[in-house]
Amino acid sequence: MNNLLVAQSGGPTVAINATLVGVLQGAKIYGKIDKVYGAKYGIEGAIKDNLIDLSTLMSDYDKLDTLTYTPSSALGSCRYKMKDWRQDETPYKSIIETFKKYDIKYFIYIGGNDSMDTVDKLSEYCRMNNLDTRVMGAPKTIDNDLNLTDHCPGFGSAAKYIATTISELDRDISVYDVPAVTIVEIMGRNAGWLTASSALARVNGGNGPDLIYLCEREFDSESFLRDVKNKLSEKPGVLVAVSEGIKDKSGAYVSDIISSGAVDNFGHKYIAGAARALEQLVRSRIGCKVRSVELNLMQRAAAHIASETDISESVMLGQKALSCAINNETGRMAAVKRISNAPYLVEYISVPVNEVANHEKTVPSSYIAPTGNDVTQEMMEYLRPLIRGEINLKYENGIPRQLVLF
Amino acid sequence: MNNLLVAQSGGPTVAINATLVGVLQGAKIYGKIDKVYGAKYGIEGAIKDNLIDLSTLMSDYDKLDTLTYTPSSALGSCRYKMKDWRQDETPYKSIIETFKKYDIKYFIYIGGNDSMDTVDKLSEYCRMNNLDTRVMGAPKTIDNDLNLTDHCPGFGSAAKYIATTISELDRDISVYDVPAVTIVEIMGRNAGWLTASSALARVNGGNGPDLIYLCEREFDSESFLRDVKNKLSEKPGVLVAVSEGIKDKSGAYVSDIISSGAVDNFGHKYIAGAARALEQLVRSRIGCKVRSVELNLMQRAAAHIASETDISESVMLGQKALSCAINNETGRMAAVKRISNAPYLVEYISVPVNEVANHEKTVPSSYIAPTGNDVTQEMMEYLRPLIRGEINLKYENGIPRQLVLF
């Protein structure tokens, strides 16, 4: 028997189920797979023998279509970091037992950085133990911080949500003729790609954010206050986009510095976000109307405004990962290589997963304006194709259809 | 000359421009209007003689189509509350001067409670001064709290955004197999209609929020903690929807009670929202993973997921308001009367604006579950038709097109 196991891991995105669908389509197309299983809650499902049979789903086109546009991980997820097998072999032995029990010839793990570390370690372990299970990774992360791939599935849809939302908020904040600052916090502890995508609100000539601060640049509160005052002298409504992970020159998170004294009635520390901290700063130092907005979980869950480019590529990367496994590749990750911007053309390749795991691709200097409060044209050229196209989402009773596996 | 002046007021919604379009369509159709002006920044534009000519826009169908789906008030807005003319006649005199200067025969004011108060006072003032300008109101508010209309333009779209977002968050929080509570704060200081619409995430069999607390019911922290613990014993991911305006039995805002001690490094008080306060409460008293999410400005600005029912009705109400004015009505508001739920049928009527202004329609008891932590079937029947249908939104370069008037 040549059976396939697939699992999903890490934080949710709106494209990770599209990649699962790509794997299932591949299993149908390539004709070399007997049965398809899904591990529940990531690699933990393989460790605990907690699988579900996906063979019927594989042939149900209507369900696959719905699954493609359902956000988050339909198979569940985990935040499990595998230790080196030399330190703790137990989980490896359990996984191998599961592989043997279900005749797993191919294992596809869809996830981000930590998941690629698992792919790396597990593929090595299989090789060491002469087990011919092929272990392949398929990328996924809204953070867009994976090495060796031009961009990451899930990012384009999050960027489309952010660009659209910023363009809508720009309309919202322009409505009154009084000075007001609105600070929008966007996900990204170490990589500012998502925050940068707020600039895409300008693609049709709109204003977009007046100021953009990425976590790659040292954040200086005095420069920030000066920037805001300058913008307020030009127009009443000022819109600011900041990465959640902005840090000062000592490397401390801005949110911690400003809000560290705050304690609630229970004596518990307030964990304020970066935008909330800056809101307090503007209130104290400038004194105008100010509010903060966190795009929070919505930026990774808003499947209703997914990018067609992102979803299509996510499906293709699932197919690519399986096709590589069938071609005897192991310990590698399916990836996107950009050929050109105009027309936007890409190739699907595979890359060594050990060069992906435990690396973080942050925003290069040339993509950040020298002033440190905006992005460059180069960044815009990189981002623009990724949010293009709208998905053919099916609604029922006014809300999008979803597929729930368990 | 029979000229028309139109203005928008109050907080932004995604449907208020659709009503403006309805007024402009009416001006084109009824054939009794010579020129159309818009007052910038609400009634303040009429006071300060700050108008723009909308006559060209009126005939540009492509622009009108884009304007229909552009969120917020294209003419700008204000939060101006008119005093009684017996107390301060100055602004009334300025308005009348503007009316005379531009030969304004019809004035349509699109807005919420305060705006209807302006319509009431201004129409009375015109009558008292033998001025034949007809002053009509067209409703708008995501809060859905206006008297004498079955529901309010802008509410259905906000409800569709909330229902869709809650269904997406429900997928997001279901991904890990560990106990976690997610608390979503929804707009509404005194009326819980928007929070109630989170229950629409269940229309296709989905789970929706596990617990729903409206501001109409006294909020008891101990009952809340008990409810959350009960739900956690049934499933790992618990989703809670709360109105921003939930109050305890003394009438104090829950956010104030729990967070009142919090002060930041500047010595400034933290203004935490209700969800943030409850997040701290769950962290202290239950100790599991917990986070809060504010739907914030997005719930009133997310035009990309507007309800077709809402947008169509908003256009119709703009037309209705103008048609009433042309038929010599004044001091009244266009409104929706529901004829039946299945099929969903409505009539457009006009109602006396003095019975709308300064009233607030809160959620009736029969719409709230006796347990106080959910809504009833009656509420669901009321809400369901309002989010139906998707708009034919035009995208350009990956984000929705918008029309900016100035």
Question: Sheet bearing the most strands of chain A, described?
Answer: 7 strands, mixed
Biggest interface and which pair forms it?
A-B, 75 and 76 residues
Principal-axis shape of chain A equals elongated
Which fold name fills CATH's third level, the topology of the largest domain in chain A? Rossmann fold
Q: Round the Cα radius of gyration of chain A to an integer and report it.
A: 22 Å
Tell me the total number of β-strands of chain A: 13
The protein's oligomeric status is homodimer
Task: Provide the domain count of chain A.
Answer: 2
Helix content of chain A: 25-40%
Continuous helix count of chain A: 13
Mean pLDDT of chain A: 95
Segments of chain A where pLDDT lies below 50 for 5+ residues?
none
